[in-house]
Amino acid sequence: MEKRLTMISIAIKNREKVYNTVNELLHSFADNILLRVGYPRQDKNLSIIFLVFEGTTDELSSLNGKLGQIPDIKVKSHTI
């Protein structure tokens, strides 16, 4: 399958509760993540993470599906 570049935005509302889970999941896709930028807002208990992801449609769907199962997270993806 063809690999594509995708921009992914992840909004984490309950940072303290789910941040480690998100980090472990993103680590499992480290070979696909070309860029990761995080913006933690500890005063509001939230974080925003921006990713540039390179992978197949199946790999992207897998990541988005697993992120979507974590509570207090919103994910948006835009294929470049």
Going across the major beta sheet, what is the strand order?
2-3-1-4
End-to-end gap? 16 Å
CATH topology: Alpha-Beta Plaits
Number of helices: 2
CATH homologous superfamily, by name? ACT-like. Chain A, domain 2
User: Stretches where pLDDT falls below 50 for ≥5 residues?
Assistant: none
Please identify the top-level CATH class. Alpha Beta
Radius of gyration: 12 Å
**How do the helices and strands follow one another from N- to C-terminus?**
EHEEHE
Taking the sheet with the most strands, its summary is: 4 strands, antiparallel
Fraction in helix: 25-40%
The residue-averaged pLDDT reads 96
Which structural category do the helix and sheet elements fall into? Answer: alpha+beta
Q: How many beta-strand segments?
A: 4
Q: How much strand? A: 35-45%
What labels describe this entry?
single chain, 80 residues, alpha+beta, Alpha-Beta Plaits, 4-stranded antiparallel beta sheet, 4 strands, elongated
Summarize the structure.
With 80 residues, the protein is an alpha+beta fold.
Structure description:
With 80 residues, the protein is of the alpha+beta class. It has one domain: Alpha-Beta Plaits (2-Layer Sandwich). The protein is built from two helices and four strands. The protein has helices at 15-28, 57-68, and strands spanning 4-12, 33-41, 46-55, 73-79. It has a four-stranded antiparallel β-sheet with strand order 2-3-1-4, covered by helices on one side. A hairpin with a 4-residue loop joins strand 2 and strand 3. The chain is elongated. The two termini are 16 Å apart. The mean pLDDT is 96.
